[in-house]
Amino acid sequence: MERREQILVAAAEEFDRVGFAAATIAAIARGAGVSQGALYFHFPTKLALALGVIDEQNVRTFDVVSHTEQSPAAALVGASHAIADLLRTDPIVRAGIRLSLERGEFHAATVSFYEQWIGGIVDVFRLAIAAGELRTDLSAEQLGATVVPYFTGVQLVSDVRTGRSDLFPAVATMWRVVLTATADPAHRDRLLGVVDETFSGRGVRGRGTT
Amino acid sequence: MERREQILVAAAEEFDRVGFAAATIAAIARGAGVSQGALYFHFPTKLALALGVIDEQNVRTFDVVSHTEQSPAAALVGASHAIADLLRTDPIVRAGIRLSLERGEFHAATVSFYEQWIGGIVDVFRLAIAAGELRTDLSAEQLGATVVPYFTGVQLVSDVRTGRSDLFPAVATMWRVVLTATADPAHRDRLLGVVDETFSGRGVRGRGTT
């Protein structure tokens, strides 16, 4: 790991543990195993560190959504599984999402994070409607604007209640609700099957390799 | 307002503005217009203040759910509207819900908050299933455990994106998704009508008085 990333990971761990306000540069430098001077060389302020974590989290989470799949609805399910996986394993993603719910100094970065997310998901919902997978009175815009908060709440409450150990089944229930409400009857069983397969623990990655 | 409540409101405003870690007893005492000594008499620590805010928020939000209605599903919709209204107008409810998503020292109070909430909502979903309003593969437990996080995420993202000015339409969309997925076909149109009426701005309170 190069030094800049080492510092970002240490900052993420500290922000995730105590929040932005209580985090200190000294603790972050200690966590990264660098001097405070070396830290300031890369990130002149605590705010710069937080924005660095949020940016890096954006990159890592948007990466998982960009796969091409023939079924747009299935692609969304797969992306949510991948992000849930990152939330369980990647301190930068965990801290970035935590910081994005804090107030004040991050506000601009945070709003743009949600706008980007919702915009990206709206595009995929639009494809899913065009492909006939979904048939619903709700527009692609309404679906994107409700699924992103739904996922946000599911992962937060899972964190509070179980330290995210029930995150996969909780996200699976989210998709059962959303797809039962919106899937075209001709696609419903297939899409609910994708949810079961994706979150069963066997996972879509195993397909074809066993 | 008695002095204890005055202090709790000032604490709520400060916690809501800057979060727990950055809030100071001095600022809270100033906001309440009392001396720090008077404040310590009621709340010996900052943690005691936060737990006081969380407790008071619990009381205020549970109050709105306890109305009896002939339609359990409609009662849930009405309760969510009342809580959305409190989130827009009551600093104690706003701060209590914000604190309940922080980590560390509140963890016990926070977990019990979600368990109580989910338990209460599960009971109403059970009634709605028994009354034949809902017919779904999801159990009352799964419904309660997914609707509470859904609402949590909707109000948080509405706060970040619009300062909660789109909270009512966002909660209405949540119910359209949940009820389309779960309502018995014989009750679906009526329940979607309840959602429209409740969140249209005319509001259920106006019924019969106009």
TrEMBL record, chains A, B:
Name this polypeptide is given: ScbR family autoregulator-binding transcription factor
Keyword DNA-binding assigned: yes
Pfam families: TetR_C_45 (PF21935), TetR_N (PF00440)
Chain residues forming the annotated DNA-binding region: 24-43
Protein species of origin: Curtobacterium citreum
Domain HTH tetR-type: 1-61
InterPro entries reported for this sequence: ArpA-like (IPR047923), CprB_TetR_C (IPR054126), DNA-bd_HTH_TetR-type_CS (IPR023772), Homeodomain-like_sf (IPR009057), HTH-type_TetR-like_transc_reg (IPR050109), HTH_TetR (IPR001647), Tet_transcr_reg_TetR-rel_C_sf (IPR036271)
Alphabetized UniProt keyword annotations: DNA-binding, Transcription, Transcription regulation
